[in-house]
Amino acid sequence: MSNRTTAQRDAIKTNLPERHAHRGAAAGRFDQSPRQLDQRQQLASLQLREDTPVQCVRVQWGNREINTRELTREALQSLLSEVQWRERGTDVQLALAQALEDADYSLPIDDRDLGRGVNDQMDSLNQSGDVASGVWYEHAYQQQFPHAWRPEFEGGHAPGVFARTAPMDWTLQAAHSASAALQAWLAGLTIAECASALVALHLDALRRQLGDVRFDACFGSADAQAVPECQRLRINCNHGDCIPAALLKGAGTTPQGAPVLVLGAKYYFKNHDHYQHRHPDGAFSGENAVYLGNDPQRGAMWTGFGVGHVSTLEMFQTLLSSYNAARTERDYRSILIGSGIARQTIESEHTKGHSYSALYAAWHDAIHPAFINAEAQLDLQQLMAGAQGARVDGQGILLDLRAVERLKYS
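Structure (tokenized):
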């Protein structure tokens, strides 16, 4: 940490050469050049201040306000090189040079800070919402508000500034602010699932880092011609479709192949392969979760859309409970269709008062073996056994903060 005295910090605002006097002749020549004095007079609007005793320096350079605490060391070095030939010896250059020299200089936000923000947002997403707001799973919204459910909600629903191009896949329409649209998606009413919800949270973390203006310049603005359609904001279950690959990074794996755990990174808890045959209309073929940190008693802790704070064991128990849950009528309908029985025949019998589960039992011989093999419940050991078993699949995904900073100042 810097050990500047109050007098030294005051000198930053009033007499920068005095602050650098201990550097000898190299600092003295800034005082002796009439050209530099003239430059200072021309830059009368320049404001230099310190928000904290160390390392956080803001300068006004032309129409740009530069906050050194928001820059990586590499970005600051690059900016200093740009400034030197234009503003050599001025307060701008001196301020940037001093920030670069601070031994304790660091990023203003690191992966942990970013992760905590994502985790807090996931908590908010899980705790808010009513019939006209919030982000919901299909089945949860239909059960909670059956009178408000509409057939077009199947496959997802989002505010009107988005066009749904496929199930759980939305693209921002032209002439709309991407930052405002993203916040509207998170405010709801939105019908989604865990993967797209987490993509939206990471997009919002990116928005907060870039700022609304820069985010709109990248993903869509009120100017319909400013951003081509292929670059407009998109939200679906795939990070790679929605966030430029250059802005993402993997959290890595240990030498033993286990995922390295990083706060706020996205990890995928895969359910048993047979889940899709036991619950073809279910929402828990897996859970996209974010890492919360380590609890001394419970170990690694997680949260996800629709899942509170749980340990690794509790997450797998949640997957087990969802696997062993009784099949719903919507599951049975999907099984009948998936077994090749004509949809018209199924719906005709259903309108006569036969439930889909009753039709499943009556036509059991015509049901595809994969659905029959998934009838039995599992215990936790069976759920996690073998290549088909539940597991944490792959490494975590998170924003690359250095790449985000380069984009912010590009």
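The chain is about 45% helix and 15% strand. Residues 111-252+400-408 form one domain.
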